[in-house]
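Deliverable D2.4 — example input (structure tokens):
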């Protein structure tokens, strides 16, 4: 048994069989993928990695397994699935996942592909008495354990809220995780929270909302991320993750990608701006909670940038349109937060904060002389084209 000291959960234990999985190249790669890309430009301590988060998820999965009295096989399956759930992330996590999503893929798709095709992962799972198909079924939502890995109150969400709050120093994400674990029941069709836990579920919904507003969607962090994303799109032939083999994909991480972008003449200026923290200036913002407001596809962004630039009489490359979207508390809507037995009255807090959150922003390069014209153009174009 190996002990790992974690600042969020204390000591994390890893069995000898699990260590082979943790030490695999695909899992170790997560050390070099940031959990919150470029958020350190706003919160200097936010330099933690997907590896830290994945270990934390495995640890919480073990706590769930112990509380639910799972047998050894299901316990191993739940912990392994939690460790591997983010193994398919692109460099810079969700930021560059957009490059995958434009091709109809997601990091979840890549996680499953890696688990299915990486021999080292398969061998490590076999040593734990697990089959690849079992893990894939959990990751695809086909197991009664799936809701503990990907659901409204899963180990992923419980860990990232605590971890991101710790490393940013922004305490919005502090949640009583152990109460949620101890009040969770595992029904035949998945997990549910005892009705005594409504208060802590409300606490989580509030923490999630404030974390999105103040950390994940912070205007300066998003400005920095758009600079890096713009640079990456200039190298779309070299960074076409959707066409890569598993082994090619696993060769890419934050470090290799940053160096690649910095080495190319056409994309280097964006890295230089990030190195000096010269970020685009926000000139327009609209926020919507619920189904109101626009739903902007990734393919619409460049069109909106061109329309705003044309209206303002400036160059499209100076304009950055940001559409930040936080899905409902679950992927399927408020009803997916299962309380058992059902309460007599619904929670107003859970109902309201289960709604999707949308932010539309327009930025312009800071030295541009047309700030006011861009703001007016954004107001006109965004209202007419998307609402």
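Example output (designed residues):
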């Amino acid at each position: 048994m190996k002990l790992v000291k974690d600042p969020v959960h204390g000591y994390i234990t890893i069995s000898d069989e699990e260590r082979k999985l943790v030490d695999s190249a695909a899992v170790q790669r997560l050390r070099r993928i940031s959990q919150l890309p470029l958020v350190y430009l706003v919160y200097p301590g936010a330099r933690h990695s997907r590896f830290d988060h994945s270990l934390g998820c495995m640890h919480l999965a073990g706590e769930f397994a112990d509380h639910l009295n799972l047998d050894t096989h299901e316990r191993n399956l739940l912990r392994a699935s939690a460790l591997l759930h983010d193994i398919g992330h692109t460099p810079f996590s969700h930021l560059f996942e957009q490059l995958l999503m434009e091709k109809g893929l997601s990091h979840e798709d890549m996680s499953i592909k890696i688990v299915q095709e990486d021999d080292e992962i398969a061998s490590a799972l076999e040593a734990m008495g697990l089959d690849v198909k079992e893990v894939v079924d959990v990751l695809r939502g086909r197991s009664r354990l799936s809701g503990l890995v990907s659901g409204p109150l899963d180990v992923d969400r419980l860990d990232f809220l605590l971890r991101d709050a710790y490393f940013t120093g922004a305490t919005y994400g502090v949640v009583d995780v152990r109460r949620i674990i101890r009040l969770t029941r595992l029904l035949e069709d998945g997990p549910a929270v005892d009705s005594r836990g409504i208060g802590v579920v409300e606490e989580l919904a509030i923490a999630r909302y404030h974390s999105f507003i103040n950390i994940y969607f912070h205007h300066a962090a998003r400005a920095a991320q758009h600079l890096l994303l713009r640079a990456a799109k200039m190298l779309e032939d070299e960074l076409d993750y959707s066409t890569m083999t598993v082994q090619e994909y696993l060769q890419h991480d934050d470090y290799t990608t940053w160096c690649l972008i910095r080495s190319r003449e056409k994309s280097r200026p964006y890295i230089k701006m990030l190195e000096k923290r010269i970020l685009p200036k926000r000139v327009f913002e609209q926020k919507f909670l619920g189904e109101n407001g626009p739903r902007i596809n990734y393919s619409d962004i460049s069109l909106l940038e061109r329309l705003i630039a044309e209206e303002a009489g400036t160059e499209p490359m100076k304009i950055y349109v940001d559409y930040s979207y936080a899905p409902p508390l679950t992927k399927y809507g408020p009803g997916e937060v299962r309380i058992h037995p059902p309460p007599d009255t619904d929670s107003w807090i859970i109902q309201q904060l289960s709604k999707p959150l949308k932010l539309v922003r327009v930025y312009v390069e800071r030295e541009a002389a047309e700030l006011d014209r861009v703001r007016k153009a954004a107001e006109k174009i965004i209202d007419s084209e998307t609402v």
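The chain has 19 helices and eight strands.
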